[in-house]
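Listing S7. Sequence submitted for prediction.
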Amino acid sequence: MAQIYLVRHGQASFGSQNYDQLSDLGRQQARHLGQWWAQRDLSVSRVVTGTMQRHQQTAQECMAAMTAQSAEQIVMQGWQQDAGFNEYNHHEVLARHYPAFDDPAATKAFLMNTPNGKQQFQQIFTEAIGRWISGQYDSDYSETWQAFQRRCIDALKRQIALQDGAKNIVIFTSGGTISALCQHVIGFPDLRFAEFNWSFVNSGVSRLSVPPQDSGSLNEGRCNFMYLNNFSHLEVLNQSQLITYV
């Protein structure tokens, strides 16, 4: 029975012109995960990342910590990249609903200067996702909600279909991608996507069990989540600043 570990990337650079890179804290979170796995003698059979920089940086830091190396020493030869595990364009989804947030600096200023800014931003973002998944404005987006769902599911199917005997497969990806896969396997309504998306902790892990007879269909309940959004590797350190969601 194969185990697939879906890892959300470490904290990215929210509010900067280039969100797609880990912050210093994000690198720490990834290393804490690698150290946690090393302490538990997890044997990784296959490493997969999306093509986004934050996915690859998280993988490098995590796998380096597992093997007591620096990220620069990690050789990525043999690792797979699959753009199917990339995040949806959250900037576009937000800006189509709230054009003032087209500038990342404006988003950061809103959060810093608005009373209850985090809660208000979360409400705006939830509304933006609702607009996207409604299907009524598909022409406004470079990737529709349904296209995003299908892309994520197809990427996971490709990993399951490899049938190369891999037992522990680690996929470094994003919260939206993991949420879409959770929705498909568990079967919750589209409108709960935003709720799941907000809840995933940076470097948190969701573990999917895949019986050997599964052909990659993800149907008929053959794949099951053993746990969702596990961040014990951060909780055990008792440092609240390590637990982030962006």
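Caption to Listing S7: primary sequence and predicted structure tokens for the chain studied. Residues 117-133 form the longest helix (17 residues). Residues 90-142 form one domain.
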